[in-house]
Amino acid sequence: MPERSERNGYKHANMQNRIEQLQFDNEIYNTIRRNIKKYRKEKGLTSAQLAEMVDLSHDFIRQIESEKVGYNFSVDTFYRIAVALDIGLDKLIEK
């Protein structure tokens, strides 16, 4: 059996490899925006109808869907929209 320091070195190397393999979507808000609009249209909903379903203003939904507006939204809003569109949160973050 390897000595303790060798095992810790192995664990550290594995963690380092995993960290180097992580890839983050630097455009995550834009990815979510595009997917909200895509799934909303697939469901045949207008942005006004979606807004009513999630108890937000129509203007706010339009801002969320617009890539021109640098508006961030909360996890709660993200969740409500996913529920209203009857899709998993994972679908909204797919590239």
Order of helices and strands: HHHHHH
Number of helices: 6
Shape field: elongated
Cα-atom radius of gyration:
20 Å
Q: In which range does the helix fraction lie?
A: 55-70%
Please identify, by name, the CATH architecture of the domain at 28-92.
Answer: Orthogonal Bundle
| Beta strands, count | 0
CATH topology of the domain at 28-92: 434 Repressor (Amino-terminal Domain)
Low-confidence stretches: none
For the record, what CATH class of the domain at 28-92 applies? Mainly Alpha
Features:
single chain; 95 residues; 0% strand; elongated
Account of the protein in words:
The protein has 95 residues and is mostly helical. The chain has a domain at 28-92: Orthogonal Bundle (434 Repressor (Amino-terminal Domain)), CATH 1.10.260. It is built from six helices and no strands. It has helices spanning 4-21, 28-42, 47-53, 58-65, 75-84, 89-92. Helix 3 packs across helix 4. The longest helix has 18 residues, at 4-21. It is elongated and about 50 Å long. It starts with a helix and ends with a helix. 16% of the residues are buried. The mean pLDDT is 86.
Question: TL;DR of this structure?
Answer:
65% of the residues lie in helices and 0% in strands.
What are the SSEs and their pairings?
Blueprint: H1 4-21, H2 28-42, H3 47-53, H4 58-65, H5 75-84, H6 89-92
Helix pairs in contact: 3-4
